[in-house]
Amino acid sequence: MKLLEIYILRRVGQMFLVALLPVLAIIWTTQVLQRVNLVTDSGQSVGSFAMLATLILPSIIPVVLPFALVIGITQTLTTMNNDSELTVIDAAGANRSILVRPILLLAALISVFSFFVDNVVEPKAKTGVRQMVAETYADLLSTVIEEKNFRKIDDGLFVQISERLAGRVLRGLFVVDERDPAFDMIYYAREGAVDPSGTSLLMKDGEVQRKTRDGNVSIIRFDSYSFDLSDLTENRGQATLRASDRDLGYLLNPDVTDKDYIARPGAYTAELHRRLTDWTLPFVFALISLVIAGDARSHRQARLHPMIGALSLSFALRWASFYAANEIDTRPTFIAILYGIPVVASVISIVFLNLHGRFSVTTGIGSVWLWIRTAASSYLPRKNGNSGGNA
To answer: Is 378 exposed, middle or buried (0-12, 13-18, 19+ CB in 10 A)?
Structure first.
């Protein structure tokens, strides 16, 4: 690699990291804060929360990478143009590949890294998150661990304890069960405990109030009462894996006995094709950025900032890919559209790069039409001339 190419690669790489890290940190923080209830509601340690936050990170990286690359390329090339570096490179008669090759090399490396994260790291991380959350709420004691506060452990079921003692003993139990539409049940107990299997709550020395919808109340005192928890704990502790949690090998050959696959086979097909196309976006966005910001331009020329134009087109392509991937679940014909989006965008960008054209959002459609007219006009006279010679 030539010295100038190394210089361009280093500058684009530095700007890429400058754009990537702050955006990644902001999005990661918002995602982590959405799960802070896992600590407050279940009494998990800070270490467990830090592990959960770490497992969330791989799902964010592939989304942020392409746009950080767009910012890095356009900002670097715009700065080089303002400093007249692009003008000097063109005036020296340097080949255009000196500018294109290092940027596309960086984009290819980022695309490969994105493929690895999206298909290897992210599925394992998501599986770890689901398993951690399932294990956290597997024990009823984890849900009500905070004393003197109501905790909702299921729809219509609330529990409060005054004090939690050693040996899984709970003191001052208060349980409200509103799951039956015909009546409400309110339990008071001086003491209680969850049995080792976690299937029942054993309450001692208390009373239960049964209130019907018409306002009738019946009260029964008890020395010992067993509250059934089997319907709550039956599925807890076991993570249900979805299509987005599976690795690429599983998506290529899914288990036909998987209940989730049987219920939603289209989701697995959509996820597979999304995985096989999303990793190409950094390379496609790099081509678009080169077309928009890769030419030396006069400072007096009024134009939209290249970063705005490149980001606008990149967001449009990302939205189109996202929409097509979602539609595959119910409309398999969108598979061709999903693959066609990066291919068409890449072909158009390569054509403009070969023509050394200048492209912007406001003039893009006009430029494409002008190129078509120019190609047609140059082809027709040649065809007519050849026909006349044959005659």
So the answer is: exposed
Tokens found for residue 35: 């799960």
Rounded distance, CA 238 to CA 240, Å? 6
How wide is the angle at C-alpha 20 spanned by C-alphas 98 and 83, nearest 5°? 40
Q: What are phi and psi of 351, to 5 degrees?
A: -60, -45
In a shared domain, residues 144 and 110: no
Q: Which two tokens stand for residue 62?
A: 């592939």
- Using the structure block, give the residue that is written with the tokens 């008890």: 222
Nearest to 356 by CA among 258, 269, 290: 290
**Phi/psi at 191 (nearest 5 deg)?**
-150, 155
**Are 289 and 213 contained in the same domain?**
no
Closest listed residue to residue 133, CA positions, set 70, 225, 69, 56: 56
What digits encode the pLDDT tens for the residues 179-213?
A: 888 888 899 888 888 776 666 778 889 999 988 88
In a domain, 391, yes or no: no
Q: What does pLDDT average to over the chain?
A: 79
Q: Which residue has the tokens 């530095």?
A: 14
- The burial of 271, by beta-carbon neighbours within 10 Å (0-12 exposed, 13-18 middle, 19 or more buried), is given as buried
The number of residues in the chain equals: 391
Q: Are residues 67 and 11 in the same domain?
A: yes
Read off the tokens for 241. Answer: 């894996």
Residue in 175, 154, 171, 150 with CA at minimum distance from that of residue 162: 171
Is this prediction's pTM over 0.85?
Answer: no
283 burial type by CB count under 10 A (0-12 exposed, 13-18 middle, 19+ buried): buried
The CA-based diameter of the chain, rounded to the nearest angstrom, is 113
- Domain residues for 45? 3-136+240-381
Contact 63, 244 (CB under 8 A): no
Give helix then strand counts, H and E, for the chain: 16, 6
**pLDDT at 320 (0 to 100):** 93
Closest-CA residue to 154 (of 232, 227, 211): 232
DSSP 239: P
